[in-house]
Design brief:
0% of the residues lie in helices and 49% in strands. The protein is mainly beta. A 5-stranded antiparallel sheet has the order 4-3-2-1-5, with no helix packed on it.
């Protein structure tokens, strides 16, 4: 897996290794930064159900949970 660049995270595609609430494919639709401008978390939206969830952006590095792109 390529290293994740916070600058290119918006609109990236992710696949959950284990489906989350019957959803497997997600898009990053928003980013949250702290007062110093450092990226803290990202908002993932399930493609099929449109449900959203906030996730610490570094959690996407866990290959046992997330795969980059749609698999």
């Amino acid at each position: 897996m390529k290293p994740i660049s916070p600058k290119k995270l918006r609109h990236s595609k992710w696949t959950a290794v284990t489906p989350i609430g019957k959803a497997k494919h997600f898009l990053v639709i928003d980013l949250e930064h702290d007062d110093d401008g450092v990226l803290v978390q990202c908002l993932l939206e399930a493609v099929v159900t449109r449900k959203t969830q906030w996730l610490p952006w570094r959690a996407l590095n866990d290959r046992g949970v997330w795969l980059q792109g749609w698999q």
